[in-house]
Amino acid sequence: MTEPAPASTGSAPTPVNPRSRVLVASLIGTTIEFYDFYIYATAAVLVFPTLFFPSDDPTTALLSSFAVFGAAMVARPIGAMVFGHLGDRLGRKGTLVASLLTMGIATFLIGVLPTYAQAGWVATALLVVMRLAQGFALGGEWSGAALIATENAPKGKRALFGTFPQLGAPLGFIIGNGLFLVIGALLPSAAGADPSQPSEAFLDWGWRIPFLFSAVMVAIGLWVRMRLVEAPVFTRTREAGLVRKLPLATVFRGHWKQLVLGTFFMLATYVLFYLMTTFSLSFGRTPTDAAVPGLGYGYTTFVLMLIFGVLFFAVFTLVSGPLADKYGRRRTLIGVTACIVVFGLVWVPLIGLGTLGVVLWLVLGFTLMGMTFGPMGALLPELFPTSVRYTGSGISYNVSSILGAAVAPFIAVALWEAGDGSPWLVGVYLSAMGVLTLIALLLGKETKDVALDEAEAPEADGRAGEAAPAAASSTTV
């Protein structure tokens, strides 16, 4: 299948995005997307088991809520394929606007859904549909934001620039949970009620506010992204006639090894993050005298502890960028992943030290999270040439979400129960996933010096052995 190359634009200079605009656009978009995504994660623990999955068994209700939470991960690779196709065929800017708008609409609609008590199974079904829409949108968001950052990065600073879209995860978490915290404080439980449980007003309408507020954030994000121009790397690829008519077919045919490696590069990262956020929120708030005992902290106390830990996530995400630029993505991540394996085996003794140990557990976990998540913003895009970079990096990132994030909270709760309230099996699970990522990293190659611009330097692209002429009248899939 072929596609005629566009006519040359002559000597007219290619518009360039200011560095500040690149960093802000890549950061604000992922912050909004992760805010939207993780306010659901908080609600999935805090209120959705009661409002949408009523059951006589609290654990069954929680697992049902986690199952819908995980269902969105299945939609993410589909979103990566659809938005990846658009991003590689039509451009990064318009695709990013579309993904952000899709996420914003789905999140806002969750805020106006009826509950199970009002509409029965219809309410639950609508929640599932909106959650799938969230996953579909996030499937196209991350890779586009990472490409905006790395394809516009100056020489030698791709990993640093790639950490800015990664910052959206901790910032979105802090904003989302902070808003839940403020609303919970303004709507306290009645005197004598369990302070770890949401108040009646919070269950009635307070939980809707973070979902409705997302509309304001999306409007800001759209305004910022509409001011971007296409990266010169993509523009030159399009002008050289290297745009693929079917990027998905090309990436599966010529880059399947990179897809597999990229998926396992992200596995430990996903498992660690969802254990440290979604699972830990449930584990931390469960009373010590429950059938499956937890840590017994009140909601406000534990969320403040989580937010404190996530601050380290944000700081070390930025720290990881210069390290990956200096020492290489592979070497940096091998060291961090080895630490994740060890961390999974020692977190139970840490928790046994009391509150100080719990705080140390959160700080160490989120520090490792920042160090492993930060370099991914450069590593995954560097695995693929420009013509299929949106599709390839997006599929790797989001297929890993099924293997890691979709099942992590569900498996963790089951292992928590199997351990009679002790999370030692959860730690072993994290370590095992870390070993798989470590193997993938050892099998992979360093990408720090890979050329991103296949139109100018196709010979530098050894990722698939599919060099194309610098200028062509047609593009072959």
Automatic annotation (TrEMBL):
Membrane topology reported for the UniProt record: Multi-pass membrane protein
Residue ranges, compositional bias (Low complexity): 465-477
This protein's record includes keyword DNA damage: no
Protein's cellular compartments: Cell membrane
This protein's record includes keyword Membrane: yes
Leader sequence segment: none
Positions of the UniProt region annotated as Disordered: 456-477
Major facilitator superfamily (MFS) profile domain segment(s): 22-448
CDD domains per record: MFS_ShiA_like
InterPro entries: MFS, MFS_dom, MFS_trans_sf, Sugar_transporter_CS
Broad class of where this protein is predominantly found: membrane
Keywords in alphabetical order: Cell membrane, Membrane, Transmembrane, Transmembrane helix, Transport
Ranges that cross the membrane: 61-83, 95-113, 119-138, 159-187, 207-226, 259-277, 297-320, 332-352, 358-383, 395-416, 422-443
Pfam families in the record: MFS_1
Name of the protein described by the UniProt record: MFS transporter
Organism: Streptomyces fragilis
